[in-house]
């Protein structure tokens, strides 16, 4: 999991908006396996190790259901440390009749589901990077059927105990309105590299030759509008940069391409051309 530490730029935390906080809290605790780290009014920070929050859920005032055909969250992705952990959660989902999608991406094996509000979730495990196939600067990824039978052979015990402590926020995948503008923002501005292209509809970007720290797509339509501020969906996500000097460089790069920069309570905020809000941390 060296792809989620210095000197790489990576997603560390995602903050999503929900319509019913108590309903969502029950889902994320009982079904996904998080624990509550902190609760302040209508915001709950979730953890697995009791120290670090990877996901926050909040219920905005006058919240409205998730809006279709808009930019924002496609899914956030929880990275498990071991294949046996994937077997464990598959077994847990089967026992609780949780509907899931799945895919073998060659670089990883993944499950897909949504929370009660339609916020997308991926739960995945990486294959060893030595097994990833690179064609110069492009990594081979595909959408093949997942071999559940083989994965479930890794099951160690038939006793669900929640997510393991050492999970990470592996990546985030976003709906955007314009792929070229998004690529300029994330690559020229933030410093990511494109490592895979899915036609003219999606790109996958990373640092340090990870298969992707961020996915970007126009599957909700080119020119899709931003959702309303009180809509269910993505509030913001956090990127960790390796140093203060690196953050200063990124801020300068973002300003050079006309991106917005705001400092609030010591945190530097920006947003991509589609309105996805980002906190720049060190």
From TrEMBL:
Keyword Coiled coil annotated: no
PROSITE patterns: GLYOXALASE_I_1, VOC
Alphabetical list of Pfam families matching this protein: Glyoxalase
Stretches assigned to the VOC domain: 10-126, 168-282
Domain of life from the UniProt record: Bacteria
Record flagged with keyword Metal-binding: yes
Cited SUPFAM superfamilies: Glyoxalase/Bleomycin resistance protein/Dihydroxybiphenyl dioxygenase
Keywords: Metal-binding
Name of the protein this chain belongs to: VOC family protein
Organism: Metabacillus fastidiosus
């Amino acid at each position: 999991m060296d792809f989620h530490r210095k000197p790489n730029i990576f997603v560390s935390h995602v903050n999503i908006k929900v319509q019913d906080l108590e309903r969502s809290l029950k889902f994320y605790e009982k079904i996904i396996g998080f624990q509550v780290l902190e609760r302040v009014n209508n915001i709950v920070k979730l953890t697995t190790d009791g120290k670090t929050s990877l996901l926050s859920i909040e219920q905005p005032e006058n919240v409205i259901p998730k809006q279709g055909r808009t930019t924002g969250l496609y899914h956030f992705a929880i990275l498990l440390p071991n294949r046996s952990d994937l077997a464990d959660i598959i077994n847990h989902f089967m026992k609780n009749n949780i509907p899931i999608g799945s895919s073998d991406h060659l670089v990883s094996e993944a499950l897909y589901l949504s929370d009660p509000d339609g916020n997308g979730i991926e739960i995945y495990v990486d294959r060893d990077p030595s097994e990833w196939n690179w064609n110069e600067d492009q990594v081979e990824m595909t959408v093949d059927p997942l071999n559940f039978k083989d994965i479930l052979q890794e099951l160690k015990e038939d006793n669900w105990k929640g997510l393991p402590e050492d999970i990470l926020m592996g990546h985030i995948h976003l709906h955007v309105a314009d792929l070229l503008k998004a690529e300029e923002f994330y690559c020229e501005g933030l410093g990511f590299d494109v490592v895979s292209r899915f036609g003219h509809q999606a790109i996958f970007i990373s640092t340090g030759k990870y298969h992707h720290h961020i996915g970007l797509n126009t599957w909700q339509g080119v020119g899709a509008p931003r959702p309303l501020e009180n809509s269910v969906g993505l509030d913001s996500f956090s990127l960790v940069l390796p140093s203060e000097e690196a953050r200063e460089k990124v801020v300068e790069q973002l300003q050079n391409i006309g991106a917005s920069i705001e400092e609030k309570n010591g945190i530097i905020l920006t947003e991509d051309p589609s309105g996805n809000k980002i906190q720049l941390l060190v």
